[in-house]
Design brief:
By secondary structure, the chain is of the alpha/beta class. The chain has helices at 2-14, 28-32, 99-109, 133-146, 160-202; strands at residues 15-17, 40-42, 66-68, 88-90, 115-117, 152-153, 156-157. Strands 1-2-3-4-5-6-7 form a seven-stranded mixed beta sheet. The radius of gyration is 23 Å and the shape is globular.
Length: 203
């Protein structure tokens, strides 16, 4: 009997949900009491936004693997702490509209991420929010190219074929951008050299 209640106690410490509680602030006191054991934190369906998000404290959750933030008011500029243990981030139906800014934050702060779900945000075009098939494919390819270890994006697995294509597409974009920059730099250099040589001849 005692053993049974103890195992229940342990399992309750692994998963903590504050869903549907109308929260405008994160209840850190309760969360951080479970620093050593918490694996899944669910803060979905609340009123949380960037203003009250003080994520630095969450970095203390060394065993956290899943962070669920669905249906809140987070924007592309939300700042996360560095959390190498997290492998799953769900942030569906928020106010994320700048894909490069948001993806860069996810890539840098969650280096072990395998599953990212951000459906029903403006930055994630799909049939659900009026996006075309081309926009949806572009969105997937961009995210996959930036986060190479991703295994599932939204509700769809990332097959190797799609990963290769994403790498190819965005390598081309990057190389054409960098070659254009190189050309601009070299023409700028030629102009400077020409100006210098003219100055020397005049003297």
């Amino acid at each position: 009997m005692d053993h049974h209640s103890q195992s229940n106690h342990v399992s309750s410490f692994q998963w903590l949900s504050f869903a549907y509680q109308g929260l405008t602030e994160i209840p850190y006191e309760t969360i951080l009491a479970q620093t050593d054991t918490l694996e899944v934190l669910d803060l979905s369906y609340n009123l949380l936004d960037d203003l009250y998000w003080n994520p630095a404290l969450l970095s203390q959750l060394e065993k956290l693997s899943t962070l669920i933030l669905d249906c809140n008011n987070y924007t592309s500029h939300v700042k996360f702490p560095y959390m190498p243990s997290v492998t799953t981030v769900c942030i569906n139906k928020n106010k994320i509209n700048n894909l490069p800014v948001f993806v860069e934050e996810i890539r840098r702060k969650f280096p072990s991420i395998k599953i990212l779900s951000m459906m029903n945000n403006d930055a994630a075009p799909s049939y659900f929010n009026g996006g075309s098939l081309t926009q949806y494919k572009d969105y997937r390819q961009y995210v996959i190219s930036q986060i190479p270890g991703l295994e599932i994006l939204d509700d769809t697995e990332v097959p190797e074929k799609e990963r290769v294509q994403a790498r190819k597409t965005y390598r081309l974009h990057q190389s054409s951008h960098s070659s254009r920059k190189r050309k601009e730099d070299s023409s700028r250099k030629h102009t400077l050299m020409a100006k210098k040589s003219n100055t020397v001849i005049r003297q």
